[in-house]
């Protein structure tokens, strides 16, 4: 799992043509297990939906199976102005994700035009980062080429500028460790899908 601060962009949606699509742009602080960002819900069919909220929350890691690496339990709340405002919350999400932060399922509700709308058990998948839609994070993440990427740019620049061979080797080792964990993340996602199938058959 990525250590430090990283950005992820997710789509949460059911496979229904014209149904609501939730896009989450999140900044994940792994040392504090805190998450903040922006949620957008759109729906192309009538009635059209254009919902927006600043979101915040936290996450924990749990193991559904002792042999697995675990999963992410994500909880988010949101409103139009952020956590320090006095405006009532207009968004809530509960999700279970793979350790890759790019798969899983989530249920959420949002208040739009005075009514709460509930979406249950929607699939989570990585979203392509598009320049226009990623504008809110441009100042924090810079040009984004992937759905999820660690924010190592500063560390890399500092290490290169210093010419410190030990620091450069340490950064390379961190990158290689993340690549080596790819198979474990895939296995954890498969275990999550099996658990979801088992629960659905109850």
From TrEMBL:
Key word Coiled coil present: yes
Family matches, as InterPro entries: DUF1842, DUF1843
Keywords, alphabetical: Coiled coil
Segments forming a coiled coil: 165-202
Domain DUF1842: 4-116
Top-level taxon of the source organism: Bacteria
Domain DUF1843 stretches: 150-200
Signal peptide boundaries: none
Pfam families: DUF1842, DUF1843
Protein name: DUF1842 domain-containing protein
Species for this entry: Pseudomonas protegens (strain DSM 19095 / LMG 27888 / CFBP 6595 / CHA0)
